[in-house]
Design brief:
Blueprint lengths: L1 E6 L2 H12 L15 E4 L4 E6 L1 H10 L4 E5 H7 L4 E5 L5 E8 L10 E5 L2 H11 L3 E5 L6 H4 L5 E6 L3 H5 L2 E10 L1 E5 L1 H6 L1 H14 L3
Parallel strand pairs: 1-3, 1-4, 7-8, 7-9
Antiparallel strand pairs: 2-3, 4-11, 5-11, 6-9, 6-10
Bound molecules: 1-O-pyrophosphono-5-O-phosphono-alpha-D-ribofuranose.
Amino acid sequence: MIKFALPKGRLGDKAYNLLEQAGFSCRDYVADSRKLVFTDEDTGVSLFWVKPTDVSVYVEEGAADVGFIGKDILDEYRPDVYELLDMNMGKCRMCVAAKKGFQDDTSRPLKVATKFPNSATSFYQSKGREVQIIKLNGSIELAPVLGLSDVIFDIVETGTTLRENNLEVIDEAFRISMRLIANKASYKFKRQDIIRLTQKLKEIIPQ
Ligand code: PRP
C-alpha cells in the first residue's frame, strides 16, 4: 500500500488525474465528499487531501509515503524528504515586486512583505541586503500599495494581480512547479513501488 498526501485544490485534482493514468487509481475515491481517507486494496493506493502547506508535514513524518507539493512550499519549509520528480505543472515564479518606479534606499533595511519569510530571508542573505521581513498571510500585493512594505516577495503566475495594482517585478528568486516528494524511510522500505510510481508518472507527465 502506498499512502499519498494530495494538496487540496485544482493542482491536487490534476495530480490525482495523472495518478489514475499511471495506474494508481483509487476506486473508493469520490470527489466532493467529506470523507478524508480513500483506500483501494486492488491498486494498493491510500490517499488523502490536505492543505498544500501540510503535505510536507505528512510526508516528512511518514503519515504519507509520498506527496505532491509546490517548490515554493519546499523552499520555505525545507522538509527532510526526497524530491523525486518535477511534475511540470503549476508553473509560476517566486519574485520580488514593487510599485512602478521604485528606488531602493540602501541606507536602511528593505521592508519585505511575504508569506515566505524563510525563502525571502535566504534570498536577501545571498544578496547581502539587510531586510526587515513582514510576514503576512495573503493579499501580499496590498503591502507596498499601502506603504506597509517597500517590496513583496511572492508568487507570480499570470502577473494579473501585480498589473491591476500598479506593481512590477524587479527581481526573480526561483522558478516554481509541483514536485513529487517521498518520505525517506518509505523510500527505503517501499522502494520498488515508489520507483514504479516515479517511472510511470515520468512517462505521462505533459511536457
Ligand atoms: C497568489 C499570489 C499572488 C497571486 C499571483 O495568491 O500570492 O497574490 O496568486 O497570481 P497572478 O500572477 O496570476 O495574479 P493567492 O491567489 O494564492 O491568494 P492570497 O492573496 O490569499 O495569497
